[in-house]
Amino acid sequence: MLATNLRSLSRPDYNTANVIELEQTDRLHYLHTKVRDKTANKRQFTFYADQIIRLLLEKSLERLNFEGLNVTTPVGETYEGKQFAKPLCGVSVVRAGESMENELRRLDLNIPIGKILIQRDPTTKLPKLYYSKLPDNVEKFHVLLFEPMLATGGSAICALDVMTKAGVKPENITFVNLLCSPEGLQKVTAQFPDVTIVTSSIEQRLNEHAFMIPGIGDFGDRYFGTTDLGAV
């Protein structure tokens, strides 16, 4: 209990109105134990990370607005069903965000997916937009923006700027995130208070190298196997 209170006291203030953290069940802690373990190889890491991603997507989808849709069943009766009130699309922040695409396609067919490439400038250390390709008429969609890591908040704000400049209203964006820092949440919610953020863990803090504590390492490298150890 003391550790929890100390962690809460050390967190920067941020707007919690649209920040949704998954229920911290033993099952979720089990999955986090698997993916945070530095000895996990690529196969193990992706297997358990995909399960967390599925939970994040389920939570994100259940919070959307729905409207009525009647269908006729094979026995000729009417079923009073539901459909999304707005068309849905995904947008991945390359490369780590692409890890969420397969689970989205398993949940719903034919959802268009856009891409945004942002990299940190080696001189200024600031995020720089290199490329974006969004679905046609993206302003008419509810957008699931995929970025597993929210650390300093710089890349997230850059990606959200891309979406809003394309005409997407902040209230029509759900930022789907695996881990986030209180510092990153503070920056993003201050600039985009109407964006919904769905995360599986709000971490303790950032360290002096801007890595989240307790953290997970470089998610993209671990998920796509581009590190020598596959688990750093």
UniProtKB/TrEMBL annotation:
- Tell me the GO molecular function terms: GTP binding; uracil phosphoribosyltransferase activity
Q: Where is the Phosphoribosyltransferase domain?
A: 24-226
| Family matches, as InterPro entries | PRTase-like, PRTase_dom
Catalysed reaction(s)? UMP + diphosphate = 5-phospho-alpha-D-ribose 1-diphosphate + uracil
Q: Which cofactor does it need?
A: Mg(2+)
The answer to whether the entry has keyword GTP-binding is: yes
Task: Describe which pathway this protein belongs to, using the record's wording.
Answer: Pyrimidine metabolism; UMP biosynthesis via salvage pathway; UMP from uracil: step 1/1
UniProtKB keywords? Allosteric enzyme, Glycosyltransferase, GTP-binding, Nucleotide-binding, Transferase
Q: Name the domain of life.
A: Bacteria
What's its EC? 2.4.2.9
- Give the similarity note: Belongs to the UPRTase family.
Q: What does this protein do?
A: Catalyzes the conversion of uracil and 5-phospho-alpha-D-ribose 1-diphosphate (PRPP) to UMP and diphosphate.
Q: Tell me the protein's name.
A: Uracil phosphoribosyltransferase
